Amino acid sequence: MIASPPGPTLMGIDVLWVATILSGVAAAAVMFAIYAALSVRDPMSKRVKALNDRREQLKAGITASTSKRRAKLVQKSETADKLRDLLSSLKMLQDEQVRAAQQKLMQAGIRKKDWAIGVIFGRVALPVVIGGFMVLWVYGLDAFPTWGPIKRYGLVAASFILSYKAPDIYLKNLITKRSDAIRKGLPDALDLLVICAEAGLTVDAAFHRVAKELGKAYPELGEECALTAIELGFLTDRRQAFENLSKRVALDAVKGVVTTMIQTEKYGTPLASALRVLSAEFRNERMMRAEEKAARLPAIMTVPLILFILPVLFIVILGPAACSINDAFSGKGPGG
To answer: Considering the entire predicted model, what is its pTM?
Structure first.
């Protein structure tokens, strides 16, 4: 039986085998892209449902009996109460820490205030669990016998520090992503508020309109506008609703908008002109950030160009010549 000749090789690697694997990966990527395009869901459907449920709860809470509401509150906060009692017994719970954690949760888009106790408990529990495991692994099981005492101590200390900072780092990442998403849609929201104000709509109706129109393009901004509209309709002090908006969003631009809203409510100044000026400033800032990113692009692309693009280009250009030279030296050429 005559064996089939081996396929072409490049630097000892079968070219046909590599091409087959890359073709399979490309086909899988195409199928995943088609599935992702066909399974796009409305980003605001769940948020709108949650906001409607919150509105119904506020309406029902006016007429609901006190005993039922108290029973629901006790049932929901039972775990948080246990964690609060545990941390209080260990002298590790302060009111300032709870308020700071609650504000970070609001800025991250998490509405449950009881999770602040979980964040504080994570700062205490994670170093014990992860740091204790690392101590057992490094010193008890002798996982790195060739390491010196300084390296071992550095690994254990780093595990304790990172596990303590892990909840704050996670919340900070959520806040940054959410703030960036809100910043992108803020100029469009202000333009729509200007149109609504000039059309004669009230402030809460204008916020409702902004949440409805921009909810699909900017879900986070739509959610904040809807919450502000709900609070404007239910709270007795309208200024408190605007201040809550500035607390929920960690952006200086939103604080400027809130200050403008409060001044127009207090002194009766024209809202449309002030919002138009703010919108123009935010659009200029967005354009400047885009230009800054474009100016940094050549420096950022240098490393991927050297590591990924140039080697592939050299292989494509020099590969056939290398195969020809290899065949010539091995005696497989036309005159061999």
So the answer is: 0.65
